[in-house]
Amino acid sequence: MLYTGFSIAGDADTEVQNGTIRIQQDESEYPSLAVITMEQAKNIALATVQGQVLKMELENENGFLVYGVEVVTPEKTIIDVKIDAGSGEVLLMETDTVDYDHGGYREQDDNEHRDGGREDDDRD
């Protein structure tokens, strides 16, 4: 497994704290705000984490425009690499965990109860 000079976030309260493009616009404006392309973000992620890209998204992370690139490693771990859409800097890497109750992978979320229900879940 190749991780070049970055630590992987292990706790759920780790999140993007900075970036070069602050956003307040509608999501439809994101592509015109990005300085680097999706292809460049993909190449940066794969230079950081060895594997194959599962999915990519240009997204708002705490008010900053970032590319979220999910990479599946040879060991079948999914690493979510957050890349600044302005500078191409890797801001954060998170390991997604298996969510068997919901049929896939997810990032850990402190808003969920240990029994798998959401705080806003009113099921009885």
Write a concise keyword list for the protein shown above.
124 residues; mainly beta; Nuclear Transport Factor 2, Chain: A; two-stranded antiparallel ribbon; 12% helix; disordered N terminus; disordered C terminus; PepSY
Short précis:
This protein is mainly beta.
Helix content: 10-25%
Report the average pLDDT across residues: 78
Based on Cα principal axes, name the global outline: globular
**What amount of the residues lies in strands?**
25-35%
- Uncertain spans: 1-13, 108-124
Number of strands: 6
Oligomeric state of shown chains: single chain
Termini Cα gap: 44 Å
* Annotated CATH architecture of the domain at 27-106: Roll
Radius of gyration using CA atoms only: 15 Å
Q: From N to C, what is the helix and strand string? A: HHEEEEEE
- The CATH class of the domain at 27-106 turns out to be Alpha Beta
The computed structural class is: mainly beta
Q: What about the largest sheet? A: 4 strands, antiparallel
CATH topology of the domain at 27-106: Nuclear Transport Factor 2, Chain: A
Helix segment count?
2
Protein name: PepSY domain-containing protein
Region (Disordered): 99-124
Domain PepSY: 36-92
Organism: Desulfolithobacter dissulfuricans
Protein model, in words:
The chain is mainly beta and 124 residues long. The protein has a domain at 27-106: Roll (Nuclear Transport Factor 2, Chain: A). It has two helices and six strands, in the order H-H-E-E-E-E-E-E. The chain has helices at residues 30-33, 38-48, and strands spanning 52-61, 64-72, 78-84, 90-95, 97-99, 104-106. The protein has a four-stranded antiparallel β-sheet. The longest helix is centred in the middle third of the chain and has 11 residues, at 38-48. It is globular and about 40 Å long.
